[in-house]
Amino acid sequence: MTNLHPVSFSLNGQPVEIEIPAHTLLIDLIRDRFGLKGTKRSCDMEVCGACTMLLDGDPISSCTTLAVDVDGKEITTIEGVTPPNGLSRIQNAFVLHGGLQCGFCTPGFIMAVTALLKANPHPTDEEIRHYLHGNLCRCTGYIKIFEAVKSLAAEQVSEDAALPVARQRNFRLETS
Amino acid sequence: MLPTPFEFERASTIADAVSAVGQEGDGMFYSGGTELLLAMKMRVIHTERLVDIKGIPGLDRIVLNDANELEIGSRCTHMKIAGDSVIREHVPALASLCANVANVRVRSVGTIGGNLCFGEPHADPPTLLGALDARLVLQGPNGTRSVHADDFIRSELETVREPDELMIVIIFPRPTGPITYRRFKHGERPSVNVGMVWSMEAGAHSIKSARVRVGALGSRPQPLKAVEGVLKGLPVHDAHRAIQSVLAQALDELDVNEDRHGSADYKRHLAGVLLLRNAEEAVAMRGRAT
Lengths: 176, 290
What we know:
The structure holds 2 protein chains of 2 kinds. By secondary structure, chain A is α+β, with helices and mostly antiparallel strands. Chain A has 2 domains: 4-81, Roll (Ubiquitin-like (UB roll)); 89-162, DNA polymerase, domain 1 (Orthogonal Bundle), CATH 1.10.150.120. Chain A is built from 6 helices and 5 strands. Chain A has helices at residues 26-33, 89-96, 106-119, 125-132, 143-153, 159-162, and strands at residues 4-11, 14-21, 52-55, 58-61, 74-76. In chain A, a hairpin with a 2-residue loop joins strand 3 (52-55) and strand 4. Chain A is elongated, with a radius of gyration of 16 Å. The two termini of chain A are 16 Å apart. By secondary structure, chain B is α+β, with helices and mostly antiparallel strands. Chain B folds into 3 domains: 7-52, Uridine Diphospho-n-acetylenolpyruvylglucosamine Reductase, domain 2 (2-Layer Sandwich); 62-173, Uridine Diphospho-n-acetylenolpyruvylglucosamine Reductase, domain 3 (2-Layer Sandwich); 179-284, CO dehydrogenase flavoprotein, C-terminal domain (Enolase-like, domain 1, 2-Layer Sandwich), CATH 3.30.390. The model of chain B has no long low-confidence stretch (mean pLDDT 96). The interface between A and B is medium-sized, with 31 and 27 residues.
């Protein structure tokens, strides 16, 4: 019998509590128990960035994070930075610049860019490349993604608009 | 892939962590998990119990101590070291190294102590820490001991640390001359890396002593003794030519594994290129530390 650990954290601005075995991975908790399927699992070894979430604002690979580790923390997923209607300014820039094709890597890129622009609203070209080098895209060749982020880096925005938009919704806890 | 089930405990002191890992059955220290969880997911490592050290105060401290040495707590993340003002001032090459380990997600949670304890041959920190003459302090059930960075990694993925010894701090003298580090990589891990640290004579015109480490080639970082020997006592502006005069012989003496990163000859060649570029950088600094 595996012991269950109580974990409470903020998921996209909403407090949640759950009991889980220690070997539960964050990506599985979020996708399978909370039903938020926007985060993608791809390489499963912290290289591709598709599963990127924010832990207290910093990007992490949710495929290789123990869910017990987020106790008392704030987790932000792609659902948490997507407005209830329409797209965020980051998502909009990706669309305008053609920064996605199949879309599988896109949630991870959006999360990484969210963290980048929060820490550094006007990154240089070199800073953009350095920060995003750990997110892989097999469609775009990166140029269009880079151009999308560069367009955001040049924008003057109010502090509120640069913050992730917490999406208020009730999570449906899936029974396992 | 899921790791096999294990128990999970949080320690609030070093002594509690050491005792929890030393209990019956296999226990392991756990912080960022960026190496450990990968191995557990691949089922090449199994543990019955992970002991989380993130709640232990003091293990993420960075200070310049009274003995003019830098102390870096073992569970400092790469991100923390990269942005730390003390490290950026006194060891900018280490800040830059940490700013380029793996990717931004690994740097957020991965720690320098975890990196060292994993003993991965294709790693950045062990090479430069060897050149910096670092010692690593381990605390176990019978007290603490210091191990030189050069002696810590025994072989691939194997260190001299006992399972119930926790690495608590990394200590090295504050450098007085240029510190340089370069690597070549195909993916996220270095295929070859070279760290070089010069101590300077007063006035910074000549090199008192040099430490050169080449990493990722064999099972652990290796010194380039011939290069270190020829640099001793030399004026800074003669360093580049002096290295060239002994380079072929020095590179031949390196133990090199051929692997998917390249053939032995190719890697030796790269090590020489990186070393000479490090030397150019150190000369351009005119022997100054930063």
